[in-house]
Write a structure and sequence with these properties.
Pfam families: YobI-ATPase. The chain has 883 residues and is mainly alpha-helical. Among the domains are: 90 residues; 136 residues, no CATH class. It has 50 helices and seven strands. The strands form two sheets. It has a four-stranded antiparallel sheet, with no helix packed on it. The protein has a three-stranded antiparallel sheet with strand order 5-7-6, with helices on one face. Helix 15 crosses helix 16. The longest helix is centred in the first third of the chain and has 56 residues.
């Protein structure tokens, strides 16, 4: 019957044939059907006449069916009563329920992120414990602590809790172990960690744990983003879909239609009858506002602020009905109204200005609206641009907000590039914030255009953390917008440049970077080279194998403090072969660090430079390794080397070991002693005969007789040839005799001495006695008086006897007897009387008795007897018997 009426009235155009067939099953009253289609024909004709045929004919027919089948409920609907009104009112509850479930899921996911962040340290701790146990198994039983040296030990139970200390043992080959008795031993543990996993290193597994946690976080953040995008969708979800999702609630609601409720159920669940009904009922009544529109106006007139997503069906009519002051209060914070205002800014200029003014003043209380508008609003770009134009404190206010990440993300996502660039230039904190929270921003807007980030001119702190966003990674790298860090350089080297040997970055970082020949990477390093040097090269403990070419490039950066370059050079193993290509200002620093090959040519180059410092070169040459190496090369002897010779001979601060080596190697002798030298250095110059022997040089040593004596002794021939120039005391000559000059020179020295006073200088007499005993020709002009003193004060006795035999003839008999009386037994017994002294049978004693017999000091002498071969001395009985 329904189809027949449609044909009768010729109103089938625009109607769904399927809908007509299905709805006909619920209608069997011909009169009722005729009334419905008669009304439909009238209202459709009116719409066509007005040129406003913008409504759905199927929905218009459904409303007319509802009006005629349920007239009482239709009448109650205008008062907000009845079964349909109840169902429509329940729509908000269904939306809230779905939103609550979605928000609960977001909260749960956020808790999972917190749990994951707490779990990562636990997983790393567990990994360290596994490796710590493997290390302990490699150590001798009884040990309880280990260390890189015996002064820095850590107990086993603390190994896993100190990550930095523990990781220091991973590459160690040898460590110290301590036992309970405090005994220490050296243990080889090379490659101990391979017993845990031969396929993956500790660092690889550590990185996997971190990456897994990061990937999980990114995955959860993605789900949270999807749920947040889903939240505003609930507000636009059809009533029919909400009812299907909550079928248990729907069953109770439909009971209000009574026995003929199946028709209403069909119309509602098939979306032919829903909350847009007012658009069709308005054809029957005056006014185009929906119940929602009226409800909104009723609430704000009661000073109640509806939720930002409160549904408004005819925003322009609502705006027209609002008071002017409403736009400067919280009532304006409705997504539909704001969209309507921004869609015609010329028409609503004053209202928009009031909206922005309110947000400026009450920004914190507006953030709930802003959060929703970012997702559901249709004019977000215009909104943000307008707000930024009228509020110069927008960015600072956003950065201090609890929703700062959300706000900044929207600015980055929506604002035009020139506006973004301007904000970044005016507010450094904005770029810094994006840098700190880049991963969070990308998780919220994974499709973000990388050029928007480039406009902000910030550096990515951790490229690895955003590796899933490959387009952003590549763009930021190509723009050189990445922070210089060990992690970023390793990521670029391995992931972007596809290099394998990452370990080279630990031992020769700068060399490796230069070897890539990648202009972007090298340019980034050069842009902040001092930062790179301080925070990467000097931080890497093993970065000691830089190539010579890289070292030269590094130290030629004029902007870097010399102290920093000095630390870098000290870190390196290689020495510069020459000073070629090295800036003059660095010479002193290079010699201070001893990072220049020890050659005389390098020393001369340094001395010829404007930066030369005498003490620096002396300190450098004083190093034993430098001294031993450079002395393998002859010191240059040309005229250009005079200053070098002078420096060496004046190097008083140098150690005696080094000074002696250089002085010995000097090719020339100097005219005079340098002033200011320590006595030990002067002694070295004298010993190595590097100072001309002159009276002036001798007098230079006047306060140090020991050195004067040494100076003369080593130049004895010149002294003897020029003795008239020197007025030397017998005390001095006595010390000279104690040196290692030749015997003949000692004889010559003795000739300058006053031997007559030896009687008062017993030690001197003994010294001279030890010398003249070998003077077979009496070159020293010893007379009897002198001989007497020499013999009496010499020692040992054998020497005295030799001297006695030599000089006996020069003495009178009385002097001879006096000398004998002062000799030890048995010689002092050779006097007069009836006793018979006996002497040991020796050549000296034979000569003695023969001389005494010759001078009639003794009567006679004989050798031997029955039981001995001693010399028997026969004395005169009385003194008068001697002649």
């Amino acid at each position: 019957m329904v189809l027949e009426q449609e044909k009768r009235l010729a109103v089938g155009e625009g109607l769904d044939r399927q809908f007509l067939r299905e709805v006909s099953r619920y209608l069997n009253d011909l009169r009722l059907i005729q009334n419905i289609f008669n009304e439909y024909a009238i209202y459709v004709a009116n719409l066509e006449t007005d040129g406003e045929n913008i409504l759905d004919g199927n929905k218009l027919l459904a409303v007319l069916i509802y009006k005629n089948v349920y007239p009482r409920d239709f009448e109650q609907l205008h008062r907000g009563e009845g079964a349909l009104a109840k169902i429509l009112d329940h729509q908000a509850e269904l939306i809230n329920k779905s939103e609550d479930e979605c928000r609960a899921e977001i909260v749960q996911l956020e808790k999972l992120i917190e749990v994951g962040e707490d779990q990562t340290p636990l997983d790393l701790d567990e990994l360290r414990k596994i490796y710590a146990m493997a290390l302990i198994e490699k150590l001798p039983s009884g040990a309880f602590s280990i260390g890189h040296n015996s002064n820095n030990m850590i107990e086993f139970q603390q190994l896993a809790t100190h990550s930095d200390l523990f990781e220091g043992y991973l590459e160690s080959s040898n460590i110290y172990c301590r036992y309970n008795n405090n005994y220490n031993t050296h243990v080889n543990i090379k490659n101990w960690h391979t017993s845990v996993n031969s396929q993956k290193t500790y660092y690889q597994r550590k990185e996997e744990i971190k990456n897994k946690a990061e990937e999980r976080k990114v995955e959860i953040l993605g789900k949270i983003r999807d749920l947040r995008l889903k939240l505003p969708v609930f507000r636009t979800t059809k009533l029919s879909e909400l009812l299907r999702l909550n079928s248990s609630d729907a069953q109770v609601l439909f009971e209000g239609f009574g026995e003929n409720g199946e028709l209403a159920r069909f119309l509602i669940l098939e979306s032919f009858l829903d909350d847009t009904y007012y658009q069709y009922t308005s054809l029957f009544h005056s006014g185009r506002m929906s119940p929602n529109d009226n409800k909104y106006l009723i609430q704000i007139r009661a000073f109640i602020t509806p939720e930002p997503d409160f549904p408004i069906d005819n925003p322009h009519e609502v705006i027209a009905a609002m008071r002017e002051e409403d736009f400067g209060q919280s009532y304006v914070l409705n997504m539909v109204i704001v969209d309507a205002l921004l869609s015609d800014k010329n028409r609503y200029k004053e209202q928009v200005q009031k909206l922005y003014s309110y947000i400026k003043i009450e920004f914190e209380s507006c953030e709930h609206f802003l959060d929703g508008y970012y997702t559901s609003g249709h004019n977000v770009v215009d909104f943000l641009l307008g707000l930024n134009d009228v509020w110069d404190r927008l960015v600072p206010s956003i950065l201090t907000s609890n929703y700062n990440i959300r706000h900044i993300t929207q600015l980055v996502k929506w604002l035009p590039l020139n506006s973004l660039k301007s904000l970044a230039e005016n507010f450094d904190d904005m770029s810094n914030f994006v840098s700190e929270h880049l991963l969070d921003i990308l998780c919220e807007v994974p499709e973000l255009d990388p050029n928007r980030l480039v406009c902000l001119n910030f550096e990515v702190k951790d490229l690895l953390s955003i590796k899933e966003h490959s387009q952003v990674v590549c763009t930021m790298f190509e723009e050189g917008l990445f922070e210089l860090s060990i992690g970023n350089l390793e990521f670029i080297y391995k992931e972007l440049l596809a290099k394998d040997d990452v370990n080279m970055l630990n031992t020769k970082n700068y060399t490796t970077i230069l070897s890539t020949k990648n202009s972007i990477l090298i340019g980034r390093v050069e842009r902040d080279f001092e930062y790179y040097l301080r925070n990467i090269l000097l931080v890497l403990d093993n970065n000691s194998e830089e190539d010579l070419s890289a070292i030269l490039v590094a130290i030629c950066h004029d902007e870097i403090e010399l102290s920093v370059l000095s630390e870098f050079l000290k870190q390196q193993v290689v020495q510069l072969p020459t000073l070629e290509k090295v800036p003059d200002r660095l010479y002193t620093m290079i010699f201070d660090t001893a990072k220049i090959k020890p050659t005389w040519a390098n020393c001369l180059t340094f001395m010829d430079s404007d930066s030369f410092r005498n003490e620096t070169l002396v300190k450098y040459l004083d190093k034993q390794s430098v001294c031993d190496s450079i002395l393998e090369e002859e010191i240059p002897s040309n005229s250009d080397s005079f200053n070098l010779h002078t420096l060496l001979i004046n190097a008083n601060s140098m150690s005696d070991y080094s000074y002696k080596g250089y002085v010995c190697a000097l090719p020339n002798v100097f005219k005079s002693f340098p002033s200011g030298l320590d006595l030990t250095k002067i002694k070295i110059l004298i010993e190595k005969r590097k100072i001309n022997f002159t009276k002036n040089n001798f007098n230079f040593l006047e306060n140090t007789q020991t050195l004067q004596v040494l100076f003369v002794s080593l130049n004895i021939d010149m002294f003897l040839d020029n003795s008239e120039c020197f007025d030397l005391s017998d005390d001095f000559l006595e010390h000279l005799l104690q040196t290692e000059i030749s015997e003949i020179n000692k004889f010559n020295v003795i000739k300058f001495m006053n031997l007559a006073i030896l009687v008062d200088h017993h030690e001197r007499a003994a010294l001279i006695g030890s010398i003249v005993v070998n003077d077979d020709t009496n070159y020293c002009n010893v007379d009897g008086y002198i001989a007497k003193s020499i013999i009496m004060y010499s020692s040992p006795t054998t020497l005295q006897i030799l001297l006695f035999n030599k000089y006996c003839t020069l003495m009178t008999n009385s002097d001879v007897r006096e000398v004998l009386s002062n000799l030890p037994k048995p010689y002092c017994e050779i006097t007069t009387g009836y006793h018979t002294p006996r002497l040991k049978n020796s050549l000296e004693n034979k000569n003695l008795v023969m001389q005494l017999d010759h001078q009639n000091i003794i009567s006679s002498w004989t050798i031997g007897g029955i039981f001995t071969d001693e010399i028997k001395v026969n004395l005169y009985r009385k003194k008068e018997e001697t002649v």
